[in-house]
Amino acid sequence: MSKNTDQSFDTLMHKFAHNIYGSSKGKLRHELLVNNLWQYIKPEGEPLEIIDVGGGTGIMCKTLLELGHTLTFNDLSADAVTMAKQNLADYQNVTFHCGSLNALNDSKQFDMVICHAVLEWLSSPFDAITSLIDLVKPGGIISLSFFNKDAHRFGNLLYGNFDYVEADMKNKNTVRLNPNNALEPKQVLAHLEELPVNVLNTYGIRCFHDYLRDISKQTSEYEKIKAAEIKYGHLEPYKWLGKYFQVVIQC
């Protein structure tokens, strides 16, 4: 992966944090990801050595640190690393690494690799998956989540953005906070079938929240939406409609 073509959020981190985690979208995405990983990360188990690749603001690291795990935070963006250091200043068992995924290949292996909402920003996402596998101990876990191209297309058709869909959802002027390489879940799953891994679970993230006609219910009915997402997000056909798709893999 080239640092020149992969998306970095330098100069955009405060806007990113506000747009993503200052909304019910970001809150729900984070809570669903944690819920789907709970059997592996719950505090009753052995503490894990975990790396969060593309850790953004550090929100996932904070959750995992509070559960007693040891974390390595990684991000391509120096501004992200600075923000994460501020957000995680109260924790001792965390180290920070600024750089591309390739720069991690010579590092130690981990019990778990987290890579959430990163692949869609990379020039070579399938190569990145192979690099992530190299970071995991035998029997370890990878959690991938990525922006779902199928759901993105479906949502835009519902909104009546027909010309945008016809253009394969590519903007003439790149919006830097919009993913530039959304992925189709079935293509990712087909790729994983060719690798020495086992897919343990798949989930849709925000299968219903983003499609609500009355968007005020995204906040006023938040707990009910979350309950519905947990109940149906791992089931067909709903999981394929999640704005993000999560795959839990064992190496």
The CATH homologous superfamily is named: Vaccinia Virus protein VP39
| Category by helix and strand content | alpha/beta
The biggest sheet amounts to: 7 strands, mixed
The dominant shape is globular
- Please provide the count of β strands: 7
User: What is the strand content?
Assistant: 15-25%
End-to-end separation in angstroms reads 22 Å
Order of helices and strands: HHEHEHEEHEHHHEHHE
Spatially, the strands of the biggest sheet line up as 3-2-1-4-5-7-6
How would you briefly describe this protein structure?
The protein has 251 residues and is of the alpha/beta class.
Features:
251 residues; Rossmann fold; seven-stranded mixed sheet; 37% helix; globular
List the helices and strands and how they pair.
Elements: H1 13-21, H2 24-41, E1 49-53, H3 59-66, E2 70-75, H4 78-87, E3 94-98, E4 110-116, H5 125-134, E5 136-147, H6 149-158, H7 162-166, H8 185-193, E6 198-205, H9 217-220, H10 222-232, E7 244-250
Parallel strand pairs: 1-2, 1-4, 2-3, 4-5
Antiparallel strand pairs: 5-7, 6-7
Helix pairs in contact: 2-10
Structure description:
- This protein is of the alpha/beta class.
- The chain has a single domain, classed as Rossmann fold.
- Helices cover about 35% and strands about 20% of the residues.
- It is built from ten helices and seven strands.
- It has helices at about 15-20, 25-40, 60-65, 80-85, 125-135, 150-160, 160-165, 185-195, 215-220, 220-230; strands at about 50-55, 70-75, 95-100, 110-115, 135-145, 200-205, 245-250.
- A seven-stranded mixed beta sheet has the order 3-2-1-4-5-7-6, with helices on both faces.
- α5 links the parallel β4 (about 110-115) and β5 (about 135-145).
- α2 crosses α10 (about 220-230).
- About 40% of the residues are buried.
- The mean pLDDT is about 90.
